[in-house]
Amino acid sequence: MSKTYSDLIFDTESTRNIDEANSRINIGWITSRFDVAEHLDRKVVEFSSKLGAEQYNFIVYPVGGIIRGFWDPRRFPEAPPNIDLPDLQLANHLWETYVCAGISEWIDCDSENPDFAKFSEQELIKELNYACYLGLRTVVLNLTRKSSPNLAKIIKKWLWTKNVLFTIWVSLPTNLPKNEDLWSVWADFRKDCANFNGVRLQAILNITADLQDEFLELKLVERWKAEPVGAICVHSDVFTTGKDGQAVLPQLYQKLLQNLWMFDSMRLLLKQINDGTKYRQNLRREYATSLRFTVRNVTWMRQKMAKETDGFLATSNLDYHDVLQAPLQPLSDNLDSGVYNTFEQDPVKYQRYRDAVQLAFMDIAKDKESVVVYLLGAGRGPIGTMILEAEKRYNSECRDKNNKLKIKFYVVEKNPNAIVTLRFMNENAWRKRAILVESDMRSLPSLAKENNYEQPDLIVSELLGSFGDNELSPECLDGVTDFLKPTTISIPQKYTSYAAPIMSLNMHQTIKSAIPSFWGKGLVGHGRNEPELEEDDENEGEYVQKYPQGMAISRLDQIYVVYLRQFCALAENKPVFTFEHPNFAKTSNDREIVLDFDIDRAADIMGFAGYFDMILYKNVMLSIEPKTFSNGMISWFPAVIPLRKLYRVAEGDRIKFVISRKSDADGVWYEWNLEIHRKNGEIFKSPLQNQNGESYYMRK
Amino acid sequence: MSKTYSDLIFDTESTRNIDEANSRINIGWITSRFDVAEHLDRKVVEFSSKLGAEQYNFIVYPVGGIIRGFWDPRRFPEAPPNIDLPDLQLANHLWETYVCAGISEWIDCDSENPDFAKFSEQELIKELNYACYLGLRTVVLNLTRKSSPNLAKIIKKWLWTKNVLFTIWVSLPTNLPKNEDLWSVWADFRKDCANFNGVRLQAILNITADLQDEFLELKLVERWKAEPVGAICVHSDVFTTGKDGQAVLPQLYQKLLQNLWMFDSMRLLLKQINDGTKYRQNLRREYATSLRFTVRNVTWMRQKMAKETDGFLATSNLDYHDVLQAPLQPLSDNLDSGVYNTFEQDPVKYQRYRDAVQLAFMDIAKDKESVVVYLLGAGRGPIGTMILEAEKRYNSECRDKNNKLKIKFYVVEKNPNAIVTLRFMNENAWRKRAILVESDMRSLPSLAKENNYEQPDLIVSELLGSFGDNELSPECLDGVTDFLKPTTISIPQKYTSYAAPIMSLNMHQTIKSAIPSFWGKGLVGHGRNEPELEEDDENEGEYVQKYPQGMAISRLDQIYVVYLRQFCALAENKPVFTFEHPNFAKTSNDREIVLDFDIDRAADIMGFAGYFDMILYKNVMLSIEPKTFSNGMISWFPAVIPLRKLYRVAEGDRIKFVISRKSDADGVWYEWNLEIHRKNGEIFKSPLQNQNGESYYMRK
């Protein structure tokens, strides 16, 4: 076999590691016409044991029995054999573990022959029922058409209305013209199933000798990362014979398979296209070996590379990928010690703050004995420690021993719990250098007057969210403007948010399905309304959070924080809103923008990923925007700004992301919607989301 | 120490087992006035380590610091010290593991002094906030009054509207008159909290030297099994000195503690009443040893005893206790292989069927060469096997070798999937003795005419649910009446359902909180209505099960199947409905009854437990009614017929359970409600539940 990156790793590793890596990869054998043998339906144990010995973990077996499964539909209106695959030959848990139900391939609910379509429907239901009866966990359904609306209608009703335990794997057609877009075939099918849960409705991609065009173009392949791919089925005629005479997957196919391999929980399937295994005893085993060899280290390599950007998170046990979080609102909700503690682990952010402060000292402290520094919103004080360290470094680098800068250091924090910690820090770590001010920074101008606080030369704050201004940094910092000198410097000086359209079925479904539990129905929502006490026949005086716009809409009209993995970015990021500090002119913090993006492939837009970067001071920056990302920084995951539905776009369409930042006396909110300008001139506008901050309202 | 049953077990067991049993019991030390020492608030590590060495697993510590915690409220309106318990002395996960927040004991939100009540509220919120800040998992709140409506109001809002991770332990008063019912104090408090989740709001029972009367009467103590008891707090002055000079819990207290010990996940607390530990170095350790000794084997013994009634279920890994199941509807939903398989494990039921059939043969087969037997609703055939075994036994016991009975054996089953298994059984286990009839038994009269089937001498069926007739056995068996001879015998001959009022906060909450996930919103409900396709702005053409009566009511108007554990039966069972077969007279299967129960203690009625027994033939019976339970039988768990709310009753009240069985062309349903006839003559009637089968409808 030719060398791939997995060789590079394992050349120096022990056999045990290879075995371990191999064992993580599950491969299934699709029972084919070439396996047909008399009485196989009563010898499932022997058949699956034999394949087990050949390194397959499970089989896909015709759920009605093999004779029925490969019945010739041209014999219709004659009926196929009855279902006859006795359950008692295998214990229930073994059926579940080793057998996937193959739906008869002749079933065609979208046949042009209406009688056969109707007959197919009836026989499909029988087979689905029998898969339930056997307690199987996976059902394999073959699509043979570009469009299968009738089949989708049946499957949709089945999935939504029956308490089914199995996952349906939809194997995509292999008989369409090479330029036909399979992603669109799949996306139409799942849409016709009302986009049912991707844990229960998944695609099987077929890797055939005659590859579809879309698998040759990276930007088209990337879309599958946004879809639930349950298995990748490799056809046996894809394999060639390697130097050592063994079946081997050609390099091109290896690359494709590795690229499509998202998780080790995915499955591989082997589909026999000819009867070669009859004549070459080891062929089945060679297929399995070659497939495992191809993907076994993909996840390992990806994790290794992630360490560079994710830092210690990549090695933690938390699975933070694709987990939905509500953005923090530190202004209205006080953070707890554990949250502060997590942020304080950031190995990059605080160093940059220290560097920025030191740089500022070089500009403003020249020839001065002292400068006045305010830390605004100190939390538990990590930036405070950095400010004192910057002072120390500045002194050792720029000052003589007997001419040291000694800053006047005010530390402002509104969270009464964090104040307990700050007091402890001041005593035990800061040698009482800080003057603690327990107050909202916006009260500082009046408080300073009362207490004769000095005006700042430098204010330092860290008040940004994943989408930049979404923790109300502009409003907070504007609140101290009256107390500043004309020369006061703010760290950060400037920040900008960014956005790009994304596709992600998983994210759309995760947001839609995140409904509160019964006990969570009274939790304060993210919109304008507070929970209400409800007293009626149905309850016992409980609190209930009401959603005038409906709970479903409310969920989709919010901004989330997510470490995105199962997604596909459809364009480069563009800047959204920029803020600069100090804002002496007191210009409004309301904003409005329309971003244009050109679409270069068929896709479903689920929303926009949001990022930001900030200039702390001069050239000292922090960024979570992928192109300029501050490697190792873990304080912010991307924001996701969802749309209410998945919107299909085509190559050549232009979309517009219309977003505004609005405010009133009590808070701030975003409103947004999508416009699609089709190639043919048609314009579609999606409904305006979060109008008036009903679903997502950031309290001042 | 005196011998208890734990000695009896462990006399013959190794020390290792004792250690293992001890390690399952978690004991916490309540920091008391006697622990107050300077700077303890900055030495939480040392303090908890010391107690760890003395066999305590965690401490309850004043969350605002020890000086504040034991502040003297008589100094009001002077303010207590600020909260000052620095988080940084302990890593976040250690706080979480080793420390429970003690709320300051002087806080009294229901004080007669309105200023102090208001002040208390403000300080309570501060302390709850600080417990959140520290990330603590448990907060201990002391009740000192019979009624604490203001405190409950604050806690209620907190629990329902904040995303709180801690559990609140409500320690019940120790200062009330001895005849005051503490259960009522607790039940009032949790009711004032709108009965919030028992995982988050739990009681602490105090075992004091001066025990409340209710702890001396078993029927009153039993009520605590229906409540979420988070911890039992033993006061130090309860201990006496044993023969060996060590602190020991007197027998009466041991018995009480063992009786209250529901799960090893409960916690024990030790509360120091005097400063004895100052003078006796080992006292703390002795308390812990004695407490562990008392409860460490309670669970083990209970499991051992359960094996007798629960059979193999007791040894399985499944936790089937208090798990809500929807009753099966085998008539409208075909069962799957795994469900059949579970039932077929029953070690008792099938033997009784065999005995009953054999007994029937002795009556009806005398001098006959053959009798005609129909198995109606065969499933996968376990009773079929028993019928053939009964024939064999009858022949070997009652017949000569050359004069054997050979039954004509018809096996009727409507489930097309089970027919596959029956065919397999007939070929491989029954030597083709059976004539398989794939049909609903109610079509048998017409089918028999077409096919010249013989009339039965004996029909055998097993169509009962947990509440007897609730799987529509009467309707199914009535469907074959026209095909019977006047002499035909039915096995079973007769069955009766039973019911008794129960209390169980857990069951009430479990039913209320069992709302479907987003993906389950279209699942077929249990009422009359089918799911509907919903197409509007908020969704993508999904199925939705609508509940005209509201989803909350719909859940509470259904019958469930539950292996009850956290409950308390409030009276003996009474018979509900009886059915006899064959029903040649075709009397109606509709029924109506009013059951009277006298109430002998204060309690919250959540609903009724349902059971049944059946006479298979003459003296051969099966029963799940506790007094006559067929030991080892696992086929049926009790039924639960819930009420919509918890209804408080008092000693001396009489309640009436009004239940009717109704039917129409398509199905059968129950309607029920509760009447409370108070001692003072007042009558309360709860709303009629499941009117017209809207929420729970058994399709014919």
UniProtKB/TrEMBL annotation, chains A, B:
Please give the InterPro entries that the UniProt record associates with this protein.
Answer: Arg_MeTrfase, Arg_MeTrfase_PRMT5, PRMT5, PRMT5_C, PRMT5_TIM, SAM-dependent_MTases_sf
Ranges for domain PRMT5 arginine-N-methyltransferase: 317-491
| Location of the active site | E462, E471
Question: Can you tell me which residues bind S-adenosyl-L-methionine?
Answer: Y340, K349, Y350, E413, D440, M441
* Keyword Methyltransferase in annotation: yes
GO MF term (any one): protein-arginine N-methyltransferase activity
Site (Critical for specifying symmetric addition of methyl groups): residue numbering on this chain: F343
- Occurrences of domain PRMT5 TIM barrel (ranges): 56-280
For the keyword Transcription regulation, the answer is no
Q: Name one GO cellular component term.
A: cytosol
Q: Which family does it belong to?
A: Belongs to the class I-like SAM-binding methyltransferase superfamily.
Protein name, UniProt field = Protein arginine N-methyltransferase
What species was this sequence derived from? Caenorhabditis angaria
